Amino acid sequence: MTTFGIIGAGNIGRQVARVALAQGNEVVIANSRGPETLADLIEELGPKARAATAEEAAAAADVAVVAVPLKAYRDVPVDPLAGKIVLDANNYYWERDGHIEALDRGEETTSGLLQKHLPTSQVVKAFNHIVAATITTDGSPAGTANRRALATASDYPEAVEFVTAFYDAAGFDTVSAGPLSESWRVERDRPAYVVRQNAEELRANLALAQRVI
User: Fold this and answer.
1) Cα–Cα–Cα angle for 123, 95, 134, rounded to 5 degrees
2) Is 166 exposed, middle or buried (0-12, 13-18, 19+ CB in 10 A)?
3) Mapping DSSP to helix (H, G, I), strand (E, B) and coil, where does residue 131 land?
4) First to last CA, the chain
């Protein structure tokens, strides 16, 4: 059993929590407003879930999930996540986050920014290019024809292996985009973003992506 520390209790964070719990894991989930504001969610999720601060969720985690507005990524605790796999579900919406020039110029990736903030963690892209509601409804058993695929990217092979197994158990095939430097291929407005695609289609969409839009 793995403890997932989920930092960010929005739509994606909540859905990943449900997936983790369905696979028999424990969840410690945090938001920016305090654990007491998550009482209804914890009641829904059940006894293997509890609310905490971001620092507590990071400390409790065997594996962490970061699903916060990108403008808040520097608030993610650093030291408690040292040596841990961190699933990055963040996306860049300049309308919400303000302009980040390095992203606008195609010099950085959203996951790369998080990796620089968490230099001793193993950051891996996950769950950023799927509509939240379909995380728990669009999966299917391995080998199903036209099975939906999701992308990942990381500089750490073991992190890719973890996400691949986690995706598979959730009902999705996996396509790796490569290292974090290539994770821009699955960011907002690229061909692979929030469309349903099988593994072959996802590989094609990743290849079609242009760095600066």
Assistant:
1) 55
2) buried
3) coil
4) 42
The two structure tokens encoding residue 63? 């594996």
Q: Domain containing 162: what range?
A: 3-208
Assess if residue 203 is contained within a domain. yes
At residue 213 the predicted structure's pLDDT band, cuts being 50, 70 and 90, is low
Query: How many structural domains does the chain have?
Result: 1
The two tokens of residue 19 are 């997936």
Q: Which three-class secondary structure state does DSSP give residue 213? A: coil
Tokens 């986690």, residue located: 166
Domain harbouring 28, CATH code: 3.40.50.720
Look up residue 53 and give its two tokens: 């601060």
Q: Contact at 8 Å (CB) between 88 and 156?
A: no
pTM of the entire predicted model: 0.96
In a domain, 213, yes or no: no
Residue 166 included in any domain: yes
DSSP letters for 149-172: EEEE-BS-HHHHHHHHHHHHHHT-
Confidence grade of residue 170 (pLDDT, cut at 50, 70, 90):
very high
CB of 19 within 8 A of CB of 133?
Answer: no
Share of the chain above pLDDT 70, in %: 100
Nearest to 125 by CA among 206, 10, 33, 207: 206
- Residue 175 in any domain: the answer is yes
Asked if residues 89 and 13 have their Cβ atoms less than 8 Å apart, the reply is yes
Tell me the backbone φ, ψ of residue 206, rounded to 5 degrees.
Answer: -65, -40
